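[Automated response] Your request has been received and processed.

Submitted sequence:
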Amino acid sequence: MSVELNEVQKCLIDKIAKENGFNNYELKTNKGSEKGDNFLGILTTVTIKNGKDKLDLILKSAHQNEAFRKAAPLRSAYLREIYLYENVFNEFKKYQENHNVADIFDNYAKIYGSSIVEESECLILENLKTQGYQLWNKQQPMNSEHISAVLQGYAKFHGTSMAMKHKNPELYENITEDISSSIWENDEFVANKDKFDSFFRTVMNIGYKSIEDDPALTEFLKILEPQFSDMFSDGLKDPEYKTSIVHGDCWCNNLLFKYEGSDNKRPLDVKYIDWQISHVNSPAYDFCYFFLAHSPKEILDDYKTYLKLYYDTFSKHLRSLNCDPDEIFPFSRFEKHINRFMIFGLYMCFTILKIMLCDSEEAPDFGEMAEDGDMLQSMNFKFKNFDIFKERIRNLVVFVKDNNFISK
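Generated structure:
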């Protein structure tokens, strides 16, 4: 089904077409995602075609729903993502190339254009799916090959950020000045204590309900509860953790994999998308969020192997940028950050695993909920895979408990 574009989008696409040699062209548009795949935006596939020549793009545009725009920091999210693509990534690439790094971090889509016009904020990116990249099945935990590939990519990304911060602090401060804090820290929602407390309680109730048949785990979660709250009120703002730029939105629908062959077991490449809540934080933020949300029990039980894999890749990348990892971010400090952020990752899983395990028709419609004034209850939806969700959450709580990931 063809998707109607607004005038801002039409003009932007026409400009991109002409810049890429398409003076006379046919334009095809189509819906680019299913319900539950993308929450802060609308994805539209765009094909610019002239004979055998074509350019496949993705238009990512902000919702125009007035209630939704008031309930969530949509404009801030789009301005931030545009900034990452058009500024930070360019600086990162130049910095790595200037050091002759052989294996650079460039695991993101090419951007062709953007708009910051109020209510028409959008990005136009290359369509990675037409190049053979695929989403992971969000209802399945990842295997070791996929977990490893994602963590190694994050390690190079964080390593580039820390090297620039250490070797060229003026440039680093310049590119991070406007993205040092999360968009949620600056949003009215977080500033409104009653609203935040209500949402926090909703998320905690999801966690309690998933382990309600286990008194010991329920008591442990009660011990963790004030630490969850502290993470958002103070913990994520602690200068100790302001060490690098992080992706921030580390679930599988923001990852695209490319394979050799048809078994889809060993990814050759991974691309990271949706940089809307990227900000300055600890590498442990990305590691713990991603690792807990996607690891089956056998990988959780072997988590130290993946800590080492991440840190070895991180260290190698820092050395390629003429930096000493033991000076900048020693493994002992990384472990302390991991110990702090594992409970943050657990909290995030109370909601993100519901989204991952629900079917498309079961996913919440945030636009409709905003219209009804009920955004805070967006996570209170029923879904058929609740028993699987309970088992996944139980494994995570046991993992955190058994490994004593609790603030001392």
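Summary generated for your ticket: The two ends are 56 Å apart (CA to CA). The chain has 15 helices and nine strands.
If you did not submit this request, please reply to this message.
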